[in-house]
Amino acid sequence: MKKNSKIKVQNSKLNFAGRTPRPRSAKRGGPNSELKKSVAFLWDESFLWGLMAYKTLKANGLPFELIRAEDVKKGRLKNYAMLFVPGGWAANKLKTLGSKGINEIKKFANNGGNYLGFCGGAGLATLDGIGLLDIKRKPTKERVPSFSGRIHLNINEHPVWKRFKIQDSRFTSKNSKLQTPNSKFVFHAWWPSQFLIEDSGLKILAAYGNALPDSFSSDLNVGDVEMNSNWTELEEIYGINLNPKRLKNEPAVIEGTFGKGKVILSLIHFDTPDDANGAVVLKNLWDYLGVAGRDVGEDTCQSVIASKAPQSHEIATGSSIPRNDTSPIHRFTNSPIINALESAVNDLISLGIRNFLWFWKNPMLLQWRRGVRGLEYCTLYVMVKELKEALSPQPSALSQKHSAPYELSAVSRRLHKIKGMLMPFTEKAKQLLILERHEIQNGHITYERCDNPEIQKLRTELFGDSKSHGGLFKNLIDETDKFLYALIKMQAI
Question: Which domains does the chain have, with CATH numbers?
Fold first, then answer.
């Protein structure tokens, strides 16, 4: 690594001359911890889920380094103790890695590197992806494809559950401690897949228990349905499995090995904002997989990303975005172009709220009605907000005499490029949402099935024909994601 390696700007793109330099006095527990004791965090094709994990890990002082598939292909995993892959579409991650990246991950694990995957990152390691474990994913028709929210876990004794007080002696035996649905083991699942375990030698660290009443299956509140309706009738209407009881006793967190490396796959998002239980498990996972961070106890975890879902006035004004006038880069924080981007995504989200198409579940996730896409829109909203935050001055820079390490003209060019893609997308998206809202009133539609040719034309243009999205949306978030990644990496210098 060159001593004075810096991020350079070429052809309007932010590129790295070598790897991100580490500070001489890197502190234990931060993202700049010693590489060989740290975690490689695979950024590609994660988007919203990558940002969620990034914020949560950073808030808990857990060491990690952001890398891309290109770094994996170049053999840089050898510098790390663990590879962490957050959520996102596993198929898209697989495509980005290519055969070279896949082989490098296998070599890494075979030589003793540990692998941790959440949701899409878990799917990547199955036989449907890289094949680190002898596991498949259930076909969509056989699983509960649209569950989201809080759910109990039945826990098998393992170091990843330490720091939780086990009080129910009825479920204590010599070899295991299984928790009742009344235990404190409550976590979040966000539209998870389901495992088909081919290898009986794998350890099931946790299985699903009962869903909490505030969770959802598709756009149906679980508590409301169980009090006032019938899952069987609703499943006939929706044409999919909805009853969360179908998840009960299904494996949610599993462990196996590939070569000398440990592999833990979780369909639970322990990286969910405001999840104190999840924060404890994250610390335990880092400890168990050989990467120590600072102590995280229950009191510490209570403050993990202590924010709330955006309210209507915050959506309109952007008042939830931190501001600081002391840095030259502030010109972008409040520049017309940043304000235009923010206003466009605010208007899009506000339109959906006004038309009863969605509401905020937590600071980063919407709950939307069946018949429209929601994850894509909240992904775009969160990424634009994060882009603005990344262009805001960082507290650590306030004591420094030099200005923020951005090439301002290149930043401006990248922002204008994103604006040129975002504005037509949001305008067409608003047209689509209004048409879909009217169509919902007329009959049964899904995000991918509708007889209205105008709706289908707009859907194809905006999202392509793939469930994992394409079209204008994919081009837009790819461009935004590349820029955001560069800005975040620059902040680590």
Answer: 31-301 (3.40.50.880), 312-491 (no CATH)
